[in-house]
Amino acid sequence: MPTQEKITYCGICEGQCGIVVTVEGGKAVKVRPDKNSPLSKGFACPKGIAYPSIAADPDRVVEPLRRLPSGNLVPVTWDDALDDIADRLRTIIDRDGGDSVGLFGGHALLDNYSGFFWDAGMCAALGSPHNYTSSSVDINNYWAIGSMLYGHPLINPIPDIDRTDFLLVFGANPLISHSSMLTAPRARDHFTGVVRRGGRVVVIDPRRSETAAAFDWLPIRADEDVLLMASLLQTIFAGGLADQDALERQTTDGGRFIRDMVGGHTPESTEHRTGIPAATIRALAHDFATTPRAAAYGRCGISLGSAGTLAKYLMDALNIVTGNLDRVGGYVFGEEFIDLQLITHLAGAATYDTWRTRVDGFPEVLGTAPAVSMAREITTPGKGQLKALIVNAGNPAMSVPGSGELGRALQQLELLVVLDVQQTETAGYADYVLPGVLGIERDCLPWLNSGHTIKPFALWADKTVEPPPGCREEWWVVDQICERLGLVPSPFPLIRELGETGLRLTPQQTFDLFLRISPRGDLFGQRPDGWNREKAWQNPQGVILEDELPTDVLREKLYTPDKRVHLEQPKMRDELVRHTARSVNGDLPLRLVSVRELRTCNTYLLNVEKLMTGDRRQRLRINPVDAEAAGINSGDMVTIRSAEGEIEVEALVSEEMAAGNIGLPQGWGHNGGWRLANAAGGANYNLLTTSAAETHDQLSGNGHVNGVDTAVSAVRTPGARVPALHEGGR
Ligand SMILES: Nc1nc2c(c(=O)[nH]1)N[C@H]1C(S)=C(S)[C@@H](COP(=O)(O)OP(=O)(O)OC[C@H]3O[C@@H](n4cnc5c(=O)[nH]c(N)nc54)[C@H](O)[C@@H]3O)O[C@H]1N2
Ligand SMILES: Nc1nc2c(c(=O)[nH]1)N[C@H]1C(S)=C(S)[C@@H](COP(=O)(O)OP(=O)(O)OC[C@H]3O[C@@H](n4cnc5c(=O)[nH]c(N)nc54)[C@H](O)[C@@H]3O)O[C@H]1N2
Ligand code: SF4
Ligand SMILES: [Mo]
């Protein structure tokens, strides 16, 4: 077989970097950044470059595995696995109903539209509310606000980063994460571009993150952003700095509700909570409101807090109240390549709070339920108790708050099927581990990112290499199980009905159809310049469709019936009251936040030798003042204690943390079937978080993992230390 170079993009994170894959003997042997990619222009990070090593990982699952009563996993044929899984599901469904079966879709479905929609489709076909995604420990509060304010969950305005003069960043670290819910390939260039043009970037973060260090850092006490935001808004209203014209034009109530809601939250009343002096808050409010082109942007620092929906609401309100919504250099609406907003709207799938979850009464978000409830859905008897679960491209046993409780609950399931490329901690509880494929081994479509990409962008790329012979695409696996159960897996009722007549569309056919009927589509030849799948695949680098995102398009973009933004949200007032009442826990005085690292993605990639070179250990960052108070030095083993549990980790005393806050990388402390990851040591962050419903974001059920109350003390047993990386490794 000749050596070939094939173009695609990397979908490991939202950076969407164009890559060139060298294929030799049917295997990916090298990946390099694609200089000709219109948006990423020759950038890719070490994770994307490591794709061949990820694909060739010696621990990779390459054939279906079944658990024996002895606990060992043994290889089985696909037919045997699928038949047995379907038989066992059939027994459960016949006895307890379709609502006793569920799915969990993880972060690795980001570039995997087929996997994501087939998961959602199986739940819809079963009539099951047990449709869980990692988005519920991530961004479900963004979707909730999309629905409340703009009439559609998938509407998420983004900062017009290339034209703004003031970017206010709440809890995001794009220099490491490569940006999230704002797809800006070469993120660093776009963020630093603001300053190069003479503008300002202020980063609000309890940690002097890589991004905070590159710009103006404003330290805050973790999980108190909503009080800062309320005070910024209060100052803006009280100082007559609100853009009243814009408010009257764009919103239903001219901003009166929010003005009243924040009225009592003067900077003086919140400074003791946020740790930010009132004078600083006033100056920031003034600067933000008087810069003609300004935008506020935030990510996991706020959405993984205890009141993420309120935080996103207040952040959007900052943009709206200052007249920056839908204006050049402000907070603008993206454009999807495939118009999933329209399609989900027409299909009745663009929902929020149309039903509540059984055990916790959380509102559904886009038809999904929160992962923090999963453990209780498994253990709470009654109609709708979760008895069987398929986990697709996620590792909830580590990623979901309250890992300890969830791990115990997963063992109670009658059937757990894990579709992954590795034997993860979740796979450790599974009856079946089925081998999925990697992004370069299937066709990829940035279905989720498309609507918040910095420019309208056409992208859908074919696979570049065949997967190992025993591996199967995730949608195919779900489809095969459904076929055996007589189900058509689609969240779209029309497609389900079509399937029931015998015409089962593949993901490619379904999304080709969606593309062709989208505004950019070819309407089956009626718009000869329009797009279809074939044309997209002929342009695997992607095509910039417009140089800029449009502005002054509010009425076209909104899905609210009156075409105005609904800032009047009484639930927000209740949330602000709830949050304001949160007291500082004297026994657990330090707020714990997560640290994301360049060479891991959430809980995986610690098994890739190439990414584990150098001094890679999990270390707890602690400010010198807090370290001294606890008698801790760098290199000491320390105990972190929360209301939920304790873990032991190594300390790193560093001024990168603002006093009162500690920072720990998540996704360490492995004990699955991945040898190098296990040998990397460390402890699971989410043993400190809880699944208790009342601690999470009430309006979306989104998990609370940032700003958790903790205490740190020196480990009493001297000599304890984390094992070095290669000890006991392969
Ligand atoms: N404490 C704490 N917890 C957090 C976070 C935090 O910051 N702190 N972050 C949260 C966020 S933002 C997220 S998104 C979630 C992530 O939560 P999860 O999605 O549960 O975790 P990941 O580690 O991303 O799991 C991805 C899994 O997919 C597998 N995989 C990778 N590529 C493929 C593929 O192509 N096909 C298949 N089938 N499998 C694949 C990997 O081996 C891995 O097991 O975690 C959340 N949890
Ligand atoms: N290298 C790498 N890239 C990734 C990932 C990865 O694991 N590794 N994961 C991907 C995923 S799934 C996602 S969702 C994105 C996330 O993308 P980002 O949100 O940009 O990444 P985080 O590192 O979670 O950034 C959150 C920041 O908020 C800060 N923070 C924590 N608590 C608070 C708080 O209470 N208030 C404020 N103001 N700040 C706070 C943290 O210190 C951190 O700097 O990254 C993606 N990209
Ligand atoms: S930045 Fe994200 S998309 Fe780009 S190569 Fe790295 S992991 Fe892949
Ligand atoms: Mo995420």
TrEMBL record:
Family named by the database record: Belongs to the prokaryotic molybdopterin-containing oxidoreductase family.
Keywords: Iron, Iron-sulfur, Metal-binding
Record's protein name: Molybdopterin-dependent oxidoreductase
A Pfam family matched in the record: Molybdop_Fe4S4
Gene3D superfamilies assigned: 2.40.40.20, 3.40.50.740, ADC-like domains, Dimethylsulfoxide Reductase, domain 2
Superkingdom as given in the UniProt entry: Bacteria
Residue stretches making up the 4Fe-4S Mo/W bis-MGD-type domain: 3-59
Biological source species: Pseudonocardia eucalypti
The keyword Metal-binding belongs to this UniProt entry's keyword annotation: yes
PROSITE patterns listed in its UniProt record: 4FE4S_MOW_BIS_MGD
